[in-house]
From TrEMBL:
Gene3D superfamilies: FAD/NAD(P)-binding domain
FAD-binding domain mapped to chain residues: 14-353
InterPro entries: FAD-bd, FAD-dep_Monooxygenase_BioMet, FAD/NAD-bd_sf
Top-level taxonomic group: Bacteria
Identification of the protein by name: NAD(P)/FAD-dependent oxidoreductase
Organism: Nannocystis punicea
Keywords: Monooxygenase, Oxidoreductase
Amino acid sequence: MTDSTRANGGLRRAVVVGGGVAGPTVAMFLRRLGLATTVLEARSEAAGDEGAFLGLAPNGLQVLAELGLGAEIQARGAVCQGMRFTNARGRCIGVIDHRDHAQRFGAQMVMIRRAELHRSLMTAAGERGADCRFGARLVALDERPGEVVARLESGEQLAADVLLGCDGLRSRVRALTLPDAPAPAYTGLCDLGGFARCPGAPLEPGWTVMTFGRRAFFGAFAAPGGEVWWFHNTGARETMQVADPEQRRASILALHAGDPGWIADVVRATPTLLGPWALHDIMTLPRWHAGRVCLLGDAAHATSPSAGQGASLALEDALVLARCLRDAEAPQAAFARFEQERRGRVEAVVRQARKNGDGKAPAGPVAAWFRDRMLPLFLRLGAAAQARTFAHRVEWSPRAE
Ligand SMILES: Cc1cc2nc3c(=O)[nH]c(=O)nc-3n(C[C@H](O)[C@H](O)[C@H](O)COP(=O)(O)OP(=O)(O)OC[C@H]3O[C@@H](n4cnc5c(N)ncnc54)[C@H](O)[C@@H]3O)c2cc1C
């Protein structure tokens, strides 16, 4: 499908590095503009449950809706009705209700396995004519007059008019293009997770329960099919260093000793532990582009998961960058416009995510007493900011002539 408005500046070929969230999405928008687009993904096509699961917020889903993929992605995942926060004794100390999101924001929060999301987006990009390649790792790039050349690990070289770095937190494109850019910062939290069947867990289908445990934080989403999708955040980096999965499980169980007993049941019922991930973010990069190369998604502004926005921001970026390429006279002007339009929004979310993550750190008895009483107020205050984030709309409107 080609949009009636085509890319300005005579662009014909694009190379997109990364087949996660931003990569295939921007590829679909570039195909609308008629660009021959290649997506390079380092992983093999068979990569399994890498990355566990994530939540797509209404602001991200509206980008998928623009591509005609909203209903499909929602069907592949599950709507999250809301979140209940509990303390280490299992007492509910706050609720965020998502059930009116469709009416307020035009879409609901959708939880989806990461592998499922990646697969669906790459398939959709392929169906729209993008050349999506797995096992294709970018190792170097050269800028020549009028083009940029991607060099793959296999030795193959691909020339393009623009190259988009959608290769995530540890972006190779960023390292090659902006070698002085600051490294991602460790947030102080590690993340592990998994998928389990645990019929005895007191979880309501479609709801997430977030528990401020005595020594670690635990989040569990009850997927409608009866599975529990869970994650565990800890500041205890030792868990990261344990190589043996059963010892790692023992370390998670030890960190939740004394917390509601169903948490241990879920961890024990999990066939394969996923992770660990040391959570990093990038508060700000001096710039997002150089020459014919531009970064988007986590490569430009990695967000810790604690705001549930990284994937949704990557989707927004994809639409806005393609629109800027459509409307600007030259790639450099498009990239500058893109950065100008996006920087304020994404950096505010990265800061908020860091703050939310800090709130997950284990609290002493006095701090926990205050948190239990203050959380409803913090949730109310946070609700306005969250509503602004969810209500944000990026538009694929026609070019203004
Ligand atoms: C544990 C965890 C939980 C999270 N939970 C949420 C959540 O609930 N909600 C949310 O919105 N966000 C969440 N996030 C953040 C979210 O996953 C990211 O913000 C989002 O995936 C960013 O998308 P992206 O396309 O920029 O990068 P990615 O999705 O990371 O994709 C980058 C891709 O590039 C590929 N790649 C890397 N290097 C190369 C190379 N040299 N050549 C070719 N390919 C390469 C990688 O294999 C990968 O597939 C979470 C993150 C983590 C770590």
